[in-house]
Amino acid sequence: MNTQSNKYTFMYASVMVIVVAAVLAFTALTLKPLQKKNQEIAKKKDILKAVNIESTSENAEELFDKYIVEALVVNTKGDLVSKDKSKAFNVNLKKQLKKSLDKQDLPVFIFENEKKERKVILPLLGKGMWGPIWGYVALKSDMNTVYGVTFDHKGETPGLGAEISTPKFQEQFAGKEFFKQNSEFTPLKLIKGGAKSTHEFDAVSGGTVTSKGLEAMLLDNLSKYKNYLQNNK
Q: What is the rounded CA–CA span in Å between residue 227 and residue 78?
């Protein structure tokens, strides 16, 4: 065959495209289980971080199994749907948000330490300025007072919206409350220049859009758990 002909060039290019595509497909399939495992470990680390348990990729699974003694699925009425720990862990919040409220599955993670002190951990998912934001809120056994939180983001501006993932920003949420004394549910509100009550949080300086997104995330997600929290106080 004439290696200088257009036919040869076309055939050579076609074969190379097929070979490269096959290699990429094989690599993607091979790495998929590892990617899924890494995502699961990252999620377990985030859940533990909400209750101030620091973990690594090496010990996250061990600590998760030790401290997360239960994982439930409830609905917006506060009713128990499932006590299957695996099912609760694998609930996809993004998919649930596309469903009507009465059909959404809500995961609940129960933490217990060596002193038998329990905390309830609830997942969050929302929108920041440049992409999704997410996190976990840990509540004390009164089902009202925040024990700890962890927030993270995809693509927020360093030094501005990205500050939601810093310890300094997250520490202010400890001691905040979602219910008033009359049991009225009150989602945390964004305050510029300094929060003045247990129902407010201080905004990220220069990150108004992200702060607003965080406020909306707390409202949209935690209001769905209102009945569950009231029923289990």
A: 5
Residue in this structure with the two tokens 């934001």, named with its chain if needed: 133
How far is 47 from 151, CA to CA, in rounded Å? 10
Q: Considering only CA atoms, give the Rg of the chain.
A: 23
**Predicted local distance difference test score (pLDDT) of residue 59:** 96
Give the integer Cα–Cα distance in Å for 207 and 203.
7
Residue 42 φ/ψ, nearest 5 degrees: -60, -40
Per-residue tokens: 138: 């840990």
pLDDT tens digit sequence for 178-204: 887 767 888 788 887 777 888 888 877
- Return d(Cα 148, Cα 140) in angstroms, integer: 9
Residue 33 in this model has a pLDDT that exceeds 80? no
Inter-residue contact 93 to 50 (CB < 8 Å): no
DSSP assignment string, 53-117: ----TTTHHHHHHHHEEEEEEE-TTS-EEE--HHHHHT--HHHHTTS-GGG--EEEEEEE-TT--
Burial of 169 (0-12, 13-18, 19+ CB in 10 A): buried
Domain range annotation of the chain: 68-231
Decide: pTM greater than 0.90: no
Q: What percent of the chain has pLDDT over 70?
A: 91
> For residue 160, with 0-12 CB atoms within 10 Å meaning exposed, 13-18 middle and 19 or more buried, which class applies?
middle
pLDDT tens digits for 50-86? 999 999 999 999 999 999 999 999 999 999 999 999 9
